[in-house]
Specification:
Largest interface: A-B, 35 and 32 residues
Largest sheet of chain A: 8 strands, parallel, barrel
Distance between the termini of chain B: 32 Å
Distance between the termini of chain A: 24 Å
Strand content of chain A: 15-25%
Strand order of the largest sheet of chain A: 3-4-7-8-9-10-15-16
Number of helices of chain B: 6
Number of domains of chain A: 1
Strand order of the largest sheet of chain B: 10-9-8-7-11-12-15
Largest sheet of chain B: 7 strands, mixed
Number of strands of chain A: 16
Oligomer: heterodimer
Radius of gyration of chain B: 18 Å
Order of helices and strands of chain B: EEEEEHEHHEHEEEHEHEEEE
CATH superfamily of chain A: Aldolase class I
Strand content of chain B: 35-45%
Helix content of chain A: 25-40%
Number of helices of chain A: 9
Helix content of chain B: 10-25%
CATH class of chain A: Alpha Beta
CATH topology of chain A: TIM Barrel
C-alpha cells in the first residue's frame, strides 16, 4: 500500500495534514501527538509584519461548527524565523508555510524572505481568509488577480505552491483554473464559509467584526462538493478540507477527488484525530483493495 | 499536558444548578490551583468543542481530581447526566497556576483574600486549600445572588469563610467588594485572588488598586484548542509589545494590573 502524495516536487508521507490556523506552528500539538506521523503541517498564516489579530470574542460555537474571526494573528517574518523556525527544523514531516498579506508585495516578501529555509517544504497561499479587511478574500474571488498573484509568486520560489481557495464564490472552478494557469502546483479547498451569529438580547453580532468564518462538520458537504468540482476542472492535485471529524469524512474527500486532506476544527475536539484518520484510511484501502491514493479517484464520475 | 480517557468516580449536585465531578487523574503532572482541563462531552457534533473547567480539588494520595461546574448549556447539561463508571475524554492540566504568577512579595503577605463567585468558586476552593496546605491563612469570600447557589458541602470548615449574598439570604448582604470595603482591617498586608464573573474580577482589581495592594485574577474566555495553538481565547493586556495574551496559555491567571479592563 502506497500512502504517499506528490505535490509538485514534494512527496508527503501520507495524505493527512493539519489545517492552517488550527495548529499554530506545531509546538503546542507536538506535546500531544507524534508530528512525524503527519503527512504535513500547514502552519498558521504568516504575514510580513506581526499581526495582533481581531478584537474578542473571536470564536463562537454554532450548530455542528464554529465561527471564528482570529484576524491572522501571527508573529511576522522576523519573529517567525527567530522563534518558530528552530522548532520546525526539528520536525520530521513536510512543513507547508501558509502565507497571507494585504498586497501582492506582502505575499512576495514572505516567500522571498523564507525561501532559503530548508525546513519549509512548500507554501500554501491564503487568498481566502474572510477575516481581514485587505487581501485575503479580496484576492481569492477574482480570477484575474488569482492568476496574476500566482504567476508572480511562481517566479519567487521553486518550492511547491498550493493555492487555498474560498468557497465564497459563484463558481470555484474558475478560480481554480486561474491558479493553475498562474503556475500553482496544487489547490486546497475550502477555507471557511462566511457566516454571522447575532446576539438577539443585545442586538449586536457576537463577533465584533460581524461576518466571520464558519468551519467544522457543518461545512463538510460544502468542502466535499468544492473538492469534487475543483478536481474535475484542473489537472492539479487537490487538498480537501472542511469539517473532517473521522476517517469516513476524510474518505469522502478522497473519493470526491482529493489527493490529500487537512484536519482543522476536528483537532480542537480530538487532538489525536489526524493519527486516527490515517489509520482509518489505511484500513479502508486494505478492505477495498486500493493500492495508492489515486485509486480513490476512479469511483465517482 | 496529556489527553487521557478517565473514569467518573462520582457526580453530585452541590448547589442549585452546580455539580461536583470526581474522576481519576492519570498525567504525571499534578494539577495546580488555577489550572484547567477540557472535556469532550459525548461523540456528537452538537455540542462540538471540548468544554473547559478549572480544577476545584486534587487528592494527591488517591489521584482523584475534581471540578465544580454549572449546568448552563448543552455541554454541561449532558455532563450533568453522566454516571459514575462512565468514561470521559480529558485533556489537561492546561494553563498556568496561581503559584506561578503570584510575586514572592505577595506570597509573603499576611492575609490571602480568596474571592469566588459563580463558576469561579471551584478553582478558588482549590486555591484556598493550596494556601492552607502551605501554612498560610486564607480568607475565603464567596459571593452569590442567593444562598441556594453556595456549594456549602464543598467548603473546608477549617478555612475562614465569608458568604456574601445579594439578597441577604445568608451572610453579608451585598457583593464581595462591598464586604471588603466594610472591613478595612483586611487591606493591611493583604493580597486578593479572584475568579468569577467579569464585574466581580474588575471590582476586586479596582478595590486592590485603591488599597494599594495586588490582585490576581483567573479569566474565562470562549476557547477552541485550549493549548495555545488557535489564538481564539485572547484577552487584551497592558503591554507595549503585544496587545493580546492567550487566556489558555499565558493565563488563565493574570495579575490584575496586566489586564486591560473594559
Amino acid at each position: 500500500m502506497d500512502l504517499t502524495v506528490k505535490i509538485g516536487s514534494l512527496t508527503m508521507s501520507n495524505p493527512v495534514g493539519t489545517a492552517s490556523g488550527t495548529f499554530g506552528f506545531g509546538e503546542e500539538y507536538g506535546q500531544l501527538i507524534d508530528l512525524s506521523k503527519l503527512g504535513a503541517i500547514y502552519t498558521k498564516a504568516l504575514t510580513p509584519e506581526p499581526r495582533e489579530g481581531n478584537a474578542v470574542p473571536r470564536l463562537v460555537e454554532t450548530p455542528s461548527g464554529i465561527l471564528n474571526s482570529i484576524g491572522l494573528a501571527n508573529p511576522g517574518i522576523e519573529r517567525f524565523i527567530e522563534e518558530k523556525v528552530p522548532f520546525l527544523e526539528t520536525v520530521n514531516t513536510s512543513i507547508i508555510l501558509n502565507v497571507s498579506g494585504s498586497t501582492e508585495e506582502d505575499y512576495k516578501t514572505v516567500l522571498a524572505k523564507t525561501d532559503h529555509l530548508s525546513c519549509i517544504d512548500g507554501y500554501e497561499i491564503n487568498i481566502s481568509c474572510p477575516n481581514v479587511k485587505h487581501g485575503g478574500l479580496a484576492f481569492g474571488t477574482d480570477p484575474v488577480q488569482v492568476e496574476k498573484l500566482t504567476a508572480s509568486l511562481r517566479k519567487v520560489t521553486a518550492k511547491p505552491l498550493i493555492v487555498k481557495l474560498t468557497p465564497n464564490v459563484t463558481d470555484i472552478s474558475v478560480i481554480a483554473k486561474a491558479a493553475e494557469a498562474g503556475g500553482a502546483d496544487a489547490i486546497s479547498c475550502i477555507n471557511t464559509v462566511r457566516g454571522m451569529v447575532i446576539d438577539t438580547k443585545n442586538k449586536k453580532t457576537v463577533i465584533p467584526a460581524g461576518i466571520a468564518g464558519l468551519s467544522g462538520p457543518a461545512v463538510r458537504p460544502v468542502g466535499v462538493a468544492a473538492t469534487y468540482t475543483v478536481s474535475r476542472s484542473v489537472s492539479l492535485p487537490v487538498i480537501g478540507l472542511g469539517g473532517i471529524m473521522n476517517s469516513d469524512d476524510a474518505i469522502q474527500y478522497l473519493l470526491a477527488g482529493a489527493s490529500a486532506i487537512q484536519i482543522g476544527t476536528g483537532l480542537f475536539v480530538d487532538p489525536g484525530l489526524p493519527l486516527k484518520v490515517s489509520e482509518g484510511i489505511k484500513e479502508y484501502m486494505s478492505d477495498n483493495k486500493l493500492k495508492k491514493i489515486q485509486d480513490f479517484h476512479s469511483f465517482l464520475s | 499536558m496529556k489527553q487521557f480517557e478517565s473514569q467518573i468516580l462520582s457526580l453530585k449536585p452541590v448547589a442549585q444548578g452546580y455539580y461536583r465531578l470526581d474522576f481519576l487523574w492519570s498525567p504525571e503532572s499534578e494539577p495546580m490551583a488555577g489550572q484547567f482541563l477540557t472535556i469532550r462531552v459525548g461523540e456528537l457534533s452538537v455540542p462540538l468543542l471540548r468544554r473547559p473547567f478549572a480544577l476545584s480539588a486534587y487528592d494527591k494520595d488517591k489521584g482523584i481530581a475534581s471540578i465544580i461546574f454549572q449546568k448552563i448549556g448543552k455541554g454541561t447539561e449532558l455532563l450533568s447526566h453522566m454516571n459514575p463508571g462512565d468514561s470521559i475524554d480529558i485533556l489537561g492540566p492546561l494553563g498556568n497556576c496561581f503559584s506561578q504568577v503570584v510575586s514572592p512579595a505577595d506570597n509573603m503577605k499576611e492575609k490571602h483574600i480568596v474571592v469566588a463567585g459563580g463558576i469561579g468558586t471551584g478553582p478558588m476552593l482549590y486555591l484556598a486549600d493550596e494556601l492552607k496546605r502551605e501554612g498560610k491563612n486564607p480568607l475565603l469570600i464567596i459571593g452569590c445572588r442567593t444562598k441556594d447557589l453556595v456549594p456549602y458541602s464543598e467548603i473546608d470548615k477549617s478555612i475562614e469563610t465569608v458568604i456574601c449574598t445579594d439578597d441577604g439570604s445568608d451572610g453579608f448582604r451585598g457583593n464581595v467588594v462591598e464586604y471588603m470595603r466594610s472591613n478595612p482591617l483586611l487591606e493591611h498586608n493583604s493580597v486578593i485572588y479572584c475568579c468569577g464573573p467579569e464585574p466581580m474580577l474588575n471590582g476586586c482589581h479596582s478595590y486592590a488598586v485603591e488599597m494599594g495592594i495586588s490582585s490576581y485574577v483567573s479569566l474565562e474566555q470562549m476557547m477552541a484548542c485550549g493549548i495555545g495553538a488557535c489564538m481564539g481565547c485572547t484577552c487584551e493586556i497592558n503591554n507595549e509589545k503585544k496587545k493580546y495574551a492567550r487566556v489558555c496559555k499565558e493565563g488563565p491567571v493574570f495579575s490584575g494590573g496586566e489586564i486591560k479592563w473594559t
